[in-house]
Each structure stands twice: as C-alpha cells, then as structure tokens.
C-alpha cells in the first residue's frame, strides 16, 4: 500500500513539473497569426535580403584562407562578414557554423539560410558553407567563396555541389 501511495505521489510530481525549456515554441507559420507578429516575419525577410546583398558585394573577390575583406575571403569569412553587417554575430569557423541555428529540410530553405558541404573525397566532414541567395521551383542558388574562383554564386543542382551537400541550417 505504501509503495502504491509513493508511486502516485511521484507520478504527480513528475507530471506537474515543466521546464522552461519545454515551453511553447513559436514557429514562422504561427507568427502570421497576429499583425504584430507578421511584422517579425517580414523583418526576417528584410534582414535576409540585406545579408544576401552584403554577401553579393564580395562577388569576384579572390579566395584567401582566413580572409574577411575585399582583399580576400574564405567561405566562413563571407558568412560571418555578411551577417555581422546586420549585427548578427556568428561563429567564425565552418565547423562551428554547422551546429548553429536550426537544421532545416532542403525543401524548406529560404533566402539567407546556410548550406553546408563536404568537398573532400570520400568524406562527409563539413568543410564548406554558402548562403542561399535565391530559390526557384527547381533549384537553389547560393553564394560562397571557392579556392579556385573566389566568391561566386552556384546552383545546388550542379553535380559537384549536389553530391557534396550535407545539410541546411537557419540562423535567422
């Protein structure tokens, strides 16, 4: 009898305890329910457009390992620099960027999302990153800095990038 009573008390304690970690999460779909929250979603799009615009200012800049300016730019430097211009601080390395924000399905990517790649043969270790610049019905365009051509835009449907793709993440 005592064991039954103890079990019931414990069950009541555990079922009534809720961590703040498990509070309701507001998604973008839920944000459009009120006018005030619709502005938040609209601002996200404005910020994403500005970030992409900042990144595009570096088109044609040569590749430089550790570079973060017009003299030279590496892939994570491009991301960090573009986001910093909008006062969004991100980790400097591709490895740390690859665990920032939230994982998203490729079918749901939006402008400003990050795409991660494993470009070394026979490896799925993430070593490259780009920013989504445009989405069409059939393809995703992104800007990134390559060792061979510097800062360029590419299509995810290109064989090389399609095979190297690992994940997409949303940091906005």
Topology:
Elements: H1 2-16, H2 28-31, H3 35-56, E1 68-69, E2 72-73, H4 75-84, H5 94-97, E3 102-104, E4 114-117, E5 128-135, E6 140-146, E7 150-155, H6 159-164, E8 165-170
Antiparallel strand pairs: 1-2, 3-8, 4-5, 4-8, 5-6, 6-7
Helix/strand structural class: alpha+beta
Distance between the termini: 54 Å
The total strand number stands at 8
Query: Which architecture does the CATH hierarchy give at level 2?
Result: Alpha-Beta Complex
**Rg over alpha carbons:** 21 Å
What is the C-level CATH assignment? Alpha Beta
Helical content (DSSP H or I, runs of 4+) = 25-40%
Order of helices and strands: HHHEEHHEEEEEHE
CATH fold topology: endopeptidase fold (from Nostoc punctiforme)
- The fraction of residues in strands falls at 15-25%
Number of domains: 1
> Which strands sit side by side, in order, in the main sheet?
3-8-4-5-6-7
Number of helices: 6
Written account of the structure:
The protein is of the alpha+beta class and 172 residues long. The chain has one domain: endopeptidase domain like (from Nostoc punctiforme) (endopeptidase fold (from Nostoc punctiforme), Alpha-Beta Complex), CATH 3.90.1720.10. The chain is built from six helices and eight strands, in the order H-H-H-E-E-H-H-E-E-E-E-E-H-E.
């Amino acid at each position: 009898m005592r064991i039954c009573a103890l079990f019931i008390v414990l069950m009541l304690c555990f079922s009534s305890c809720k961590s703040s970690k498990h509070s309701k999460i507001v998604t973008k779909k839920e944000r459009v329910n009120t006018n005030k929250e619709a502005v938040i979603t609209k601002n996200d799009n404005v910020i994403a457009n500005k970030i992409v615009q900042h990144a595009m200012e570096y088109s044609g800049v040569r590749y430089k390992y550790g570079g973060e300016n017009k003299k030279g730019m590496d892939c994570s430097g491009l991301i960090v620099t573009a986001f910093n211009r909008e006062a969004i601080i991100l980790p400097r390395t591709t490895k740390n960027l690859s665990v920032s924000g939230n994982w998203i399905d490729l079918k749901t990517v939006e402008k400003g999302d990050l795409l991660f790649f494993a470009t070394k043969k026979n490896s799925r270790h993430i070593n490259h990153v780009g920013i989504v610049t445009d989405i069409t019905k059939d393809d995703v365009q992104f800007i990134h800095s390559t060792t061979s051509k510097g800062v360029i835009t590419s299509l995810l449907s290109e064989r090389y990038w399609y095979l190297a793709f690992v994940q997409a993440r949303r940091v906005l």
